[in-house]
Design brief:
single chain, SH3 type barrels, 8 strands
Length: 117
């Protein structure tokens, strides 16, 4: 799942208008029971790091668009797998903005697995 949330910084002083996109890598069971989501932030800046995964346009699958919002996914180009974070998605007012392709998610999870183990 792709989500948009308030600033992914751990500093709560960031304004809520400062939103960032992220790829959720935790499963629904974990998310529901903890109120947290494990995410990898998404950025426009491609520094060609080995732990960054480019998002091809076909990997972005928009979900149903609520009234008043555009159908364009506000995600950029690179998933930063090395910047994995745990986010309280309720207090940060996270919103689902789309669904990642299985290929993109598998690539991100493989890199994350290599980083952890």
């Amino acid at each position: 799942m792709l989500m948009r949330t308030s600033a992914l910084s751990s500093w709560p002083a960031y304004p809520l208008e400062s939103y960032g996109a992220a790829l959720v890598v935790s499963n629904d069971l974990f998310n529901r029971h903890t109120g947290l989501a494990i995410v990898c932030p998404i950025t426009y800046t491609d520094r060609e790091f080995p732990f960054h995964v480019a998002i091809p346009p076909e990997a972005k699958q928009p979900t149903e668009v609520p009234p008043g919002e555009s159908g364009v996914l506000p995600v950029s180009e690179v998933v930063m797998v090395d910047q994995v974070k745990s986010v309280d998605f309720r207090s940060r007012e996270a919103k689902r903005i789309g669904k990642a392709s299985p290929r993109l998610l598998n690539e991100v999870l493989a890199i994350l697995d290599a980083c952890i183990y």
